[in-house]
Amino acid sequence: MAAAISNMPGDVHRRIRALGNEEKAKILQRFFKTGPGQYGEGDRFLGVAVPQLRRLAASFPALAEDEIAAVLHSPFHEERLFALLCMMAIFKKADGKLQRRIYDMYLANTRYINNWDLVDISAPHIVGAFLQERQRDPLYRLAVSESLWERRIAIIATLHFIRRSDLADTFGIARLLLGDREDLIRKAVGWMLREAGKRDLGAEESFLEQHAGSMPRTMLRYAIERLPEARRLHWLKRKGPNTLFV
Fold this sequence. Notes:
The protein has helices at 8-18, 22-31, 50-58, 65-72, 77-93, 96-108, 116-131, 137-143, 148-156, 159-162, 168-176, 183-199, 201-211, 217-224, 229-239. The protein is mainly α. The protein has two domains: 1-114, Alpha Horseshoe (Leucine-rich Repeat Variant); 135-246, Leucine-rich Repeat Variant. The radius of gyration is 19 Å and the shape is globular.
């Protein structure tokens, strides 16, 4: 990456915070469940929209890795999102050596990629993209992590594969997560199964044939929500009568 002036992270902080909106920040804190005991407990928001962050990230093309890491470690959600957008942009244009560094930095900082939108916007474009032509073992290790966010990274990263009709790892990781107690994981798995079904409905229904009866209701409902009504009812009945109303 090109050299950057030493006060660049400070400039990033100033410019992001200048875009903040206090009322929007309060709405986002409720939306992303930041209260005590909730999945985003303690997260702080500035009230900056994603399109604003994308435009701002495009104006900082020369941030160095240590500068991006400094922003990624911010207590403010939007600043962490900005850092991920910068990482994605750099990764897309980088050679293999730099892509490896970005990927390694991403996995070394998962504790800061700690809400579902941060995972969803970045995991396919960094983790999935890096592993496309490599062994997928890191995803299976993430899938059994104690970290909710690492488990979500594992399944959401496979969206990169799904878009290339490469579905085996989506189903493999989904099997590992069938018993997950976190609603955010159940929704993510169901979503990826639905996306896989858009590429190969037979493969999705084969998976459901084996697991619909035991998978959590939320996961099943997400997986089948785009199927024709008759097929949705078929799979809901396989789960049990109460599923129709949950």
